[in-house]
Amino acid sequence: MVGVFLLLPATLRTKERRKNAQKIVTAMLPEVEDLQTVQQKCHKDTFDGEVVDRNRYHREFDSRLDDIEEDYGGELSHSL
Which of helix, strand or coil describes residue 56? Predict the structure, then answer.
């Protein structure tokens, strides 16, 4: 999911890119029935063992996506 996110245009807001990436991943995986399944998997894998207010999952996840892009985005764009 993160790889797809990083390939989407950085001109979009993080929230929009996350949603688009989740839609693309949902469409790519025939065993996944809906977007919510992808969201839950992302949240579980990211926050497993952490206490996160249920209403903040998307914001916290988006913040982590921003951190990943900041850390690796430049390297990835050079390798494409």
Answer: helix
Q: What is the pTM of this model?
A: 0.81
Burial of 32 (0-12, 13-18, 19+ CB in 10 A): middle
61 close to 52: Cβ distance less than 8 angstroms: no
Q: What is the mean pLDDT of the chain?
A: 86
Q: Tokens for 22, please give them.
A: 């989740």
For residue range 43-73, list pLDDT tens digits in order: 888 888 887 777 788 899 999 999 999 887 6
Is 5 within 8 Å of 62 (Cβ atoms)? no
Are the C-beta atoms of 22 and 38 separated by less than 8 Å? yes
**Cβ neighbours, 10 Å, residue 3:** 9
Helix, strand and coil in the chain, % to nearest 5: 75, 0, 25
